[in-house]
Each structure stands twice: as structure tokens, then as C-alpha cells.
Amino acid sequence: MRTRQPLTALEDLRIPVQAQLAAAWTSLMFLYAYVDILAFYKPGVVDDILAGVVHEFDTGPTFVALALTLMAIPSLMILLSTTLPARVNRTINLVVATLYILPTIYNADGESWTYSYFYGFSIGLEVLILALILRLAWTWPRTSSPATLAASLDSETLRTPQQA
Predict the structure, then answer these.
(1) Is the pLDDT of residue 8 over 90?
(2) Which pTM value belongs to this model?
(3) Does pLDDT of 147 surpass 70?
(4) Which residue, 18, 90, 104, 156, is the most exposed by fewest CB within 10 angstroms?
(5) Would you say residue 127 has pLDDT above 70?
(6) C-alpha closest to that of 141 among 14, 29, 7
(7) Does residue 68 sit within a domain?
(8) Phi-psi region of 135 (alpha: psi -120 to 50; beta: other; left: phi over 0)
(9) Which domain holds residue 93?
(10) H-helix segments, 40-145
(11) Residue 93 lies in a domain
């Protein structure tokens, strides 16, 4: 007869901020892609695209360049979040995530109320991920410099093992 093993707590490893940021940007990119793909199922969207119009914009070189830029920046943020030094990484994430809130919300402009749940839900999730990115970057853990650590040790009274 086997004895039952005691239940233990799951190990909760600390994931580096860089990996969390890269995961958040990846999630945002998946949402962007799937929202665009699912939008093709709306009646008339494919016909408009074939006629050279997306949303209300002509699909000329300027539109394509802007669309690529809007998608390339979050894609690059996945890479940059894992490779840049912490101080620069934090600043870039704060700036880019803040700037992306406006175009994300703009995507709801002009959409019919028939699809308001779809766009409201997707844009809500995208803004939530951008808020998470802002929170992760804003609360990036700081380390003490050797001088600060030495000063804090000097201010403490050192105790011997017998005093403890």
C-alpha cells in the first residue's frame, strides 16, 4: 500500500521584468493580429480592402508604411525588452506603451454598434496589457548601490551571535 505524499506549495519563481515585458508585448501583438484577422468576417470588410480602402483610409503606400510602423514597434519591443539595459529599457517601455494607448483606443472610432462588444472587448484587453506594461516598467525593482549598502550597514549596530 502506498503512502500519500504530503501536499506542498507550488514553487513560485520570480520572472525577470524583462521577460514579463516581452511576454506582455507578445500578448499585445497576438491581440492586434487576431482582432485584424477576425475583422475580416465583418460583412463588407474584404470588399472594401479589395477596393483599396481600410477603415476610411486609402490603402496606398502611406497607409501601408504607417500600418507596418504601428505593428513593427511593438514587435521590436519584444526584442528590446529582453536586450536593453534596465534604465533605457524602463524608459523606452514607459514611452512606447503610453504612446500606444491613443492609437489603440482610436481603433474603436467609426465602428458600428453591432460590433461594439467585439471592439470594446479587444480594445479593453489591449489597453489592459498596455497598463500592465506601464506598471511593470514603472515599478521596476531597484538595487542599492555599494555606497548605499555600506552606509546602511554602518548605521546598524552589529550584533554578535550571543546577542541575537
Answers:
(1) no
(2) 0.77
(3) no
(4) 156
(5) yes
(6) 14
(7) yes
(8) alpha
(9) 17-139
(10) 45-50, 61-83, 86-106, 116-138
(11) yes
The helix (H) or strand (E) run that includes residue 37 is helix 17-39
Cell 500519500 belongs to which residue?
A: 4
Give the total number of structural domains in the chain. Answer: 1
Q: Domain for residue 161, yes or no? A: no
Share of residues in the chain with pLDDT > 70 (%) = 82
Helix (H, G, I), strand (E, B) or coil at 80: helix
CA torsion 32-98-68-103 (nearest 10°) is 70
The answer to whether 84 and 127 are in contact (CB under 8 A) is no
Helix (H, G, I), strand (E, B) or coil at 98: helix
Which three three-digit cell numbers place residue 159?
A: 550584533
Q: Cell 554602518, residue?
A: 154
